[in-house]
Design goal:
This protein is 31% helix and 16% strand. The chain is built from 6 helices and 7 strands, in the order αββαββαβαβαβα. Helix 5 links the parallel strand 6 and strand 7. The longest helix is centred in the middle third of the chain and has 17 residues. It is globular. The structure holds guanosine-5'-diphosphate and magnesium ion (MG).
């Protein structure tokens, strides 16, 4: 059963240009990537109540083990080892927070949540992590947006849909939401287009993008979307400083 996820109000528009093409680099894209590159480790915790409260927007990255989450975080932040890209899925069992923004001026936080669905983990561990994650997703005050990473060759699985269900009240309440279809380089262009439209159907027309860490596909668009989400009231990142000094009236 496809899960429909209603989006309230205005969702950030998906770029009108062909989604499969690698975008031209724009000043806004470059500025958003520079912002992502400021990411540094902030803190880690095994449970929600051990996390510090933060006053800035927080974007959580979630997804099944092996979906490509660590690789996507490393690619988006242009840092090799920020999120540990484990060859042994299911090993990272903590909520890891990364601060974004110039040093001393954190203006957003990325949260890397433990991957779920890893078969070799015991049932007790699975249940424990489901509780930690649901607790976080339902209660975390600063949570502003979710990026759900999904390997399009698997599609949205039962676990992803359970997560979407749990999130629905918060999405209806304004939580921003993106499904990132990872490892796009493993699909043909036709398969990419198909995966994208199926996912959009499943998420009720919500935001979905293709991503490849290998080909750097979607990197700039995702960085820009995250920047916009965290700076809803601000101008584009390259337009923060006035381009021209104020005119003096003679
Ligand atoms: N071809 C390809 N492989 C990828 C890509 N992203 C991740 N992978 C591979 O997928 C596997 C799981 O990635 P990882 O980031 O550790 O997944 P996580 O468990 O969700 O954090 C690794 O072997 C990665 O090298 C991608 O964009 N393209
Ligand atoms: Mg990982």
């Amino acid at each position: 059963m496809p899960t429909t996820l209603k989006h309230p109000g205005r969702m950030p528009a998906t770029p009108a240009r062909a989604p499969l093409a690698r975008p031209a680099t724009t000043p806004e894209g470059r500025a958003a990537l520079a912002w992502m590159h400021t990411a540094r480790f902030y803190t880690t915790a095994a449970q929600l109540h051990q996390l510090p409260a933060v006053e800035v927007p927080e974007i959580a990255f979630v997804g099944r083990s092996n979906a490509g989450k660590s690789t996507a975080i490393n690619t988006l932040t242009q840092q090799r080892q920020l999120a540990f890209a484990s060859k042994k899925p299911g090993r990272t069992q903590h909520i890891n927070l990364f601060a974004l923004g110039k040093q001393g001026a954190t203006d957003a936080v990325l949260a890397d949540l433990p991957g779920y669905g890893y078969a070799a983990v015991s049932r007790e561990d699975k249940l424990r992590w489901q509780r930690v994650m649901l607790n976080y997703l339902v209660r975390r005050q600063s949570l502003t947006a979710i990026v759900l990473l999904c390997d399009p060759r698997l599609g949205l699985t039962e676990l992803d849909e359970a997560l979407l269900d749990a999130l629905r009240p918060r999405v209806e309440d304004g939580l921003k939401f993106l499904v990132l279809l990872t490892k796009a380089d493993k699909l043909t262009r036709a398969e990419q287009a198909r995966a994208l439209s199926i996912t959009r159907l499943q998420t009720g027309g919500g935001e979905a993008m293709l991503f490849s860490a290998l080909k750097k596909q979607g990197v700039e668009e995702v960085a820009q979307l995250l920047w916009q989400w965290c700076h809803a009231d601000a101008a584009a990142p390259d337009a923060i400083e006035p381009a021209e000094p104020a005119q003096e009236i003679p």
